[in-house]
Amino acid sequence: MTNSGEALTLLAALRYRCGQFAGAAEAAAQAQILGAGPEAAYYRGASLAALGATTEARHQLIRAADLAPASIWRARAELALATLP
């Protein structure tokens, strides 16, 4: 595995887009450990939501929005939050 938060965030995004939600959540979590920002939090939250872990998904999506209040990641996080039960 890589030591790059950016590479792990990209891996999380690719896994998410391919429907590999557990792998996406794990890659995003590792990216966050390495200091990745709102994109990793978004993909972790979206992946967790797809897996049915709504409480943790909500936490991660709010984190994504808070990390980048004037960004596409906030907009995406807010849309994802709106669909959570």
Structure description:
The protein has 5 helices and no strands. The termini are far apart. The radius of gyration is 11 Å and the shape is globular. Helices cover 76% and strands 0% of the residues. Helix 1 runs antiparallel to helix 2 and helix 1 packs parallel to helix 3. It is mostly helical and 85 residues long.
**What structural class results from the helix and strand content?**
mainly alpha
Any low-confidence stretches, pLDDT <50, length ≥5? Answer: none
Gyration radius, rounded: 11 Å
Shape: globular
Largest pleated sheet: none
The oligomeric status of these chains comes to single chain
> How many individual β-strands?
0
Mean pLDDT: 95
Strand composition percent: under 5%
Helix proportion of residues, in percent? Answer: over 70%
Number of helices: 5
- H and E string: HHHHH
How far apart the termini lie comes to 34 Å
What are the salient characteristics of this protein?
single chain; 85 residues; mainly alpha; 76% helix; globular
Brief account:
The chain is mostly helical and 85 residues long.
Task: Write the SSE topology.
Layout: H1 5-17, H2 21-33, H3 38-50, H4 54-67, H5 72-83
